[in-house]
């Protein structure tokens, strides 16, 4: 037992959300004993930058770290215990069962208040050969180091990436940069499947132009390393076939890392996330949860959702930390804003898509158009495509998606702000957005697409 | 007289706002006779791109035009008359007195509805020598051509730019690029004087690093070309002195181009702008006004203002055109969003500054901080500085200003949207903004500066 004081706050997870929680708890309450338990070797790294370590754009693993352990221990008086994996919780005794990497037996660590920020975990398909040495996950620094070491030692020429979401495609980009020929195997209809068809198709074509093979409606049935020749067996409507590959990367989606709660009465929700209220409190009064392992209220749908973004991780962490330390802050939720820069394209989304709008019962219209990222008189303008989804009844914006060569990331934020502010397309059409020839067009694309929606709605109502 | 039909819409001004008005009137009403009177030779050009024509970044004057005359005449059935300068209005007879460049006598042109989109005009200081051949204004294509021809023929080495606002500094950038050594003479305390001190100081230092001389609290008292040696006489607290210069550029501010209304009963407001209501209607029922020559409601102050931006020009033009053609649209106003890209810095503003907040009676706080434009793990991040002005009582954002190497233009739009939506800093702090390492930091700078405001307000209220 590390200590026995009453004000014992333990945080499970030493990355973005857990450290945001611990730091905010310290700001609120200087007297608390705060301990962070991290299962891995490293804390405080930028998960989203890991693909750049593979491509060599980020040179050293050290460049991935935001703050060193010392910073938290010395400046913030937060005890950091790496190599401490929580394997069970006794919520009545307020005890954690912790597997410590250098110990033979598990330890017991007590808590008064607990914040679970244990993050996400890659969903591993249950197929033969999935534990082969050339199969990699990609969630944390250790994963990235393993993959980098394998690449440096084995000089692989062909990779199969399982899953065409953001993590998969960012690795595709990294592999492309270092000369590894890549095939993407995607079970669903298309890559970036949560995006509208037109947006993900633009990305798909760019990937193919860059020499990436994309196989959709295709699943992987086994990884084969026995015969000396490494292959994976894939299956689509036409049947099975084998693909040669030196390396398999699993980007098969993320579920909450909450397996260690299986024997507890802590309520779980979507994707194994811990159910929390708007104060980030779980079904147990003294247990909070934040980040990728917690439910998040989707502001547009009003429902509990799983939105594992860094932005949500840091915000919910901060609020969970504040409340666990005696505060009383509310987290209003997320509009599910995401952006990636992949294969020289920025691709971004906020709010809900057209399918989700239909399933929620909205009579929604979908508008799409292409725009120039800045004025044609100034060289270097890039094309951007925008889709918006609008509720016919209220004329409010429900969602927006965008892809293009520049000016996408922070434009999606205007839509995110407008959705949060419950603005109509009439409002957004008339927003006073910035213009200079090198920055935008006189009517910003954000204004223009909403002007198109206004026209469509007006003609619909005639 | 051009025609005598009842439905005679005449638009004064053939640039952004006038053409937006004429085009929207045509969309609304296919039967209207629409005539646009433009005093100059050219229509439909990007005023904001003119400095790039001087620097050579835009090669040909043709690249500055958005649409040709034929487009309006043939596709939109709008008659375009260039070289037609309106010199007087008889509002009771509904007649315009028009000076036509190729005619000896003025013509009368009748209207049923009139839209005045006559734009702005450079404020010319009343000093000896101001009409010298080496003194230039810079409002339209003719001005830009004159300046370019002078530069090409005379190879000037030294320029004095009178006025350190946006137009002045964009010309400074252009002169710098083509090797003309420039001195800026600014009457007020600093360049970009409408910005907060800290922001304009960053720009000022960059300009000085780039070899530009900046003289503030200095006015020009005469332009001297008699002695063979061209000079300007300037005056500051220390007295008068002469500056050698081959070229003088007047960037002395813009007033509404409404001198031709002097003998009418059309009501004028700030800076000579035509007073309009929220339907862009002037004090005369059948006369509308839009763009740089019209008042605009400032959404933050609630007052009539003069906000001569391209964005406002095109929006008010469209609404004036719609209403003059029988529509009934409302323009809610502007939050005064501006952005410029000058000397490799983006500088932007929205809402009101700290001085204006004080003068309006707000108990406001001002927050300033520096941020990285994107994650440090990805090379190429630039510094950005942000200032926000917040009303202590309501916690609402009143204004934001920003300067930096990238990611400023569209970030100011998030603030502009938030101000329009009357969001508090608490709301903005928690906005779900996009993050990817190449695009932003996990907490976007927009979130962060508002988080700082939340802390400051909370501690103030303790």
How would you describe the overall organization of this protein?
The structure is a homodimer of 462-residue chains. Chain A has helices at residues 16-28, 50-55, 69-75, 141-154, 166-177, 197-209, 310-324, 354-359, 409-420, 425-429, 445-461; strands at residues 8-12, 33-38, 79-82, 84-90, 95-100, 107-110, 113-116, 120-122, 135-136, 158-162, 181-185, 213-215, 219-224, 231-236, 239-244, 247-250, 254-256, 287-289, 296-297, 304-305, 338-342, 345-351, 364-372, 383-391, 397-404. Chain A is globular, with a radius of gyration of 24 Å. Chain A has 462 residues and is an alpha/beta fold. Residues 1-5 of chain A have low confidence and may be disordered. Chain A contains eleven helices and 25 strands. In chain A, the strands form seven sheets. Chain A has a five-stranded parallel sheet. Helix content of chain A is 26%, strand content 27%. In chain A, helix 1 packs parallel to helix 7 (310-324). At the A-B interface, helix 7, strand 21, strand 22 and helix 9 of A face helix 7, strand 21, strand 22 and helix 9 of B.
Considering the chains and any ligands shown, give keywords for the structure.
globular, 11 helices, 462 residues, disordered N terminus, five-stranded parallel sheet, homodimer, 25 strands, alpha/beta
